[in-house]
């Protein structure tokens, strides 16, 4: 296995989630007394049947969803009602969505430049330099002047990853990043995600890609009904699951 | 392949019935009312020869049309400003602002405009205008200012009334524009708001750079449509003696008794204005659809 680049603090927690609960207005309980700790440079894969609360958990980590109770601390900052704290966390936590959510009225370059210029206060030249580096990294430099609608799903998702990386986040959240893609495009996006993982990026990944989970994850969380059913390393999780429920789930999706 | 237009028997019957009805109305007017048409008298009320300068100038009806246009443009502009603010209130995260926006919209939209006109007009022109000194300003302005005011708004003697009427129509139209703005913002996919949030953009940055540039494409066509509505709705200020097209029509009718000529002319004038704008809006919509692909 490759050496992690930013492994210096790999033992310290970057996200501490303590007993959070969340019930939607329609009465569905998405998270029920949920706790976990995510360490620096760790790749955490969250799996579970649909409606298990895994996306809600992810969306709570940057405040896209409000929690009813409990606490979330990201890199020492409490995610609470304080707008300043919230902004700080939003800056440090990048997010990649299932539907890409690129800004359709802007070119690829401007999509990636925008937050650098507005939030990081970079000049256009500085931002563009970083943007081109990132486009090289996700292997799509030739599309810098294209609009999102002119790109394939896989290309759009790689641009979306570059856009999130442009903020130099400390954590990256992936919310079913490959679920909306045609099968032949899933590989190119997973490749970029694997590269990030190898470079030591802290990642929380909600996915159905068990191959990805087995290959790069440090920790697998299996959720159901807003609770953790089982947590463990990929090795443990896929080959020696303790819980009966985990075994049933794995047999269903791996068959 | 384009289908050839075909006249079905039903179409022919309907066409026949409509022409029979029109023929009967014409018959009633000419024979029953013994109406004496006098179209020759109308053109002089559109334009008249100014004997002092030797130029043709706008007369009663044309002046009315111009007042209608001025009033509609200013009312739409002001309504757009109020409507944009109220529209943002409607989608605000603050409950109080949402309540304010909603109350404004529901209050205005569920009240007869005529009632609003009376309330607003008598309050605004009685209380607000004197406090602001609008009347004194218009009357005591220099000659160049006065001619500018006349060109862009109304002659000094009508100035204060014109402003009150414009404000009244503007507040009325603003309620509808509020809903256009709200619908435009809410029509943007949730993912766009979430992506902007996750990137750390402030509310203002999110609106300015991400949401509004997309929403404006969906807002412009109905906004232009609302401008046409404003032209039609502006006829209502005739009840408070603003010399716009409808009011001038009533004046003319009272003076000449040329009921049909007068109102048909006014109908045509409104139609020329609104139909040409409708065509322009249609063009705008096609253009917007093309540029958004």
Explain how this protein is built:
The complex is a heterodimer of chains A (255) and B (293). Chain A has helices spanning 54-60, 83-92, 108-118, 124-137, 153-165, 183-198, 210-216, 234-239, 244-254; strands spanning 13-23, 29-39, 43-47, 69-74, 77-78, 93-96, 171-175, 202-206, 219-224, 227-232. Chain A has 255 residues and is an alpha/beta fold. In chain A, strand 4 (69-74) and strand 5 form a beta hairpin. Residues 1-10 of chain A have low confidence and may be disordered. By secondary structure, chain B is mainly alpha-helical. Chain B has a single domain, classed as MetI-like fold (Orthogonal Bundle). In chain B, strands 1-2 form a two-stranded antiparallel sheet. In chain B, helix 3 runs antiparallel to helix 11 (245-256). The model of chain B has no long low-confidence stretch (mean pLDDT 87). The A-B interface holds A 62-64, 87, 90-91, 93-95, 97, 99-105, 114-115, 118-119, 149, 160, 163-164, 167 and B 189, 191-192, 194-195, 197-202, 205, 209-210, 213-214, 293.
- What is the CATH superfamily of chain B? MetI-like
Instruction: For the largest sheet of chain B, list the strands in their spatial order.
Output: 1-2
And the CATH topology of chain B? Answer: MetI-like fold
What kind of sheet is the major sheet of chain B? 2 strands, antiparallel
Q: Please give the domain count of chain B.
A: 1
Distance between the termini of chain B: 25 Å
* Strands side by side in the biggest sheet of chain A: 6-7-8-3-9-10
In round numbers, the mean pLDDT of chain B is 87
Q: Could you say which overall geometry of chain B the principal axes of the C-alpha atoms support?
A: globular
User: Number of DSSP strands of chain A?
Assistant: 10
**H/I helix tally of chain A:** 9
């Amino acid at each position: 296995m490759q050496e992690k680049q930013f492994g210096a603090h790999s033992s310290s927690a970057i996200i501490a989630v303590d007993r959070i609960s969340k019930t939607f207005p329609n009465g569905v309980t998405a998270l029920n007394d949920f706790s976990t700790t995510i360490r620096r440079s760790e790749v955490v894969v969250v799996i579970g049947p649909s409606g298990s609360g895994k996306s809600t958990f992810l969306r709570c980590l940057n405040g896209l969803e409000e929690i009813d109770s409990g606490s979330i601390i990201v890199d020492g900052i409490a995610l609470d009602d304080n707008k300043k704290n919230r902004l700080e966390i939003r800056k440090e936590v990048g997010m990649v969505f299932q539907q890409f959510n690129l800004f359709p009225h802007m070119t690829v370059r401007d999509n990636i430049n925008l937050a650098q210029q507005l939030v990081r206060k970079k000049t256009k030249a500085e931002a563009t330099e970083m943007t081109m580096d990132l486009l090289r990294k996700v292997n799509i430099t030739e599309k810098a002047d294209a609009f999102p609608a002119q790109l394939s799903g896989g290309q759009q998702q790689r641009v979306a990853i570059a856009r999130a990386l442009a903020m130099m986040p400390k954590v990256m959240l992936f919310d079913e990043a490959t679920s909306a893609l045609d099968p032949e495009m899933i590989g190119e996006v997973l490749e970029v995600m694997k590269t990030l993982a190898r470079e030591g990026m802290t990642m929380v990944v909600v996915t159905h890609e068990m191959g990805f989970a087995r290959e790069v994850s440090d920790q697998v969380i299996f959720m159901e009904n807003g609770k953790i059913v089982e947590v463990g390393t990929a090795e443990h999780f896929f080959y020696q699951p303790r819980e009966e429920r985990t075994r049933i789930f794995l047999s269903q999706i791996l068959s | 392949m384009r289908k050839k237009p075909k006249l079905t028997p039903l179409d022919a019957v309907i066409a026949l019935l409509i022409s029979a009805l029109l023929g009967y109305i014409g018959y009633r007017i000419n024979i029953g009312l013994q109406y004496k048409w006098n179209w020759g008298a109308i053109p002089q009320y559109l334009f008249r020869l100014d004997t002092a300068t030797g130029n043709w100038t706008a007369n009663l009806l044309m002046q009315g049309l111009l007042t209608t246009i001025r009033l509609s443009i200013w009312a739409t502009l002001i309504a757009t400003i109020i409507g944009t603010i109220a529209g943002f209130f409607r989608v605000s995260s603050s409950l109080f602002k949402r309540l304010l926006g909603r109350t404004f919209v529901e209050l205005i939209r569920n009240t007869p405009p005529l009632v609003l006109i009376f309330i607003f007009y008598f309050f605004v022109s009685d209380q607000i205008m004197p406090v602001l000194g609008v009347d004194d300003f218009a009357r005591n302005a220099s000659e160049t200012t006065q001619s500018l005011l006349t060109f862009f708004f109304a002659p000094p003697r009508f100035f204060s009334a014109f402003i009150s009427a414009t404000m009244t129509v503007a507040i009325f139209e603003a309620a509808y524009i509020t809903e256009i703005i709200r619908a435009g913002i809410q029509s943007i996919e949730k993912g766009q708001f979430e992506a902007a949030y996750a990137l750390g953009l402030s509310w203002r940055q999110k609106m300015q750079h991400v949401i509004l540039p997309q929403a404006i494409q969906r807002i412009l066509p109905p906004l232009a449509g609302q401008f046409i509505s404003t032209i039609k709705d502006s006829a209502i200020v005739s009840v408070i003696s603003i010399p716009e097209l409808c009011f001038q029509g009533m004046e003319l009718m009272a003076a000449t008794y040329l009921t049909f000529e007068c109102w048909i002319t006014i109908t045509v004038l409104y139609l020329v204005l609104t139909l040409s704008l409708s065509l322009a809006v249609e063009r705008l919509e096609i253009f917007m659809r093309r540029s958004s692909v």
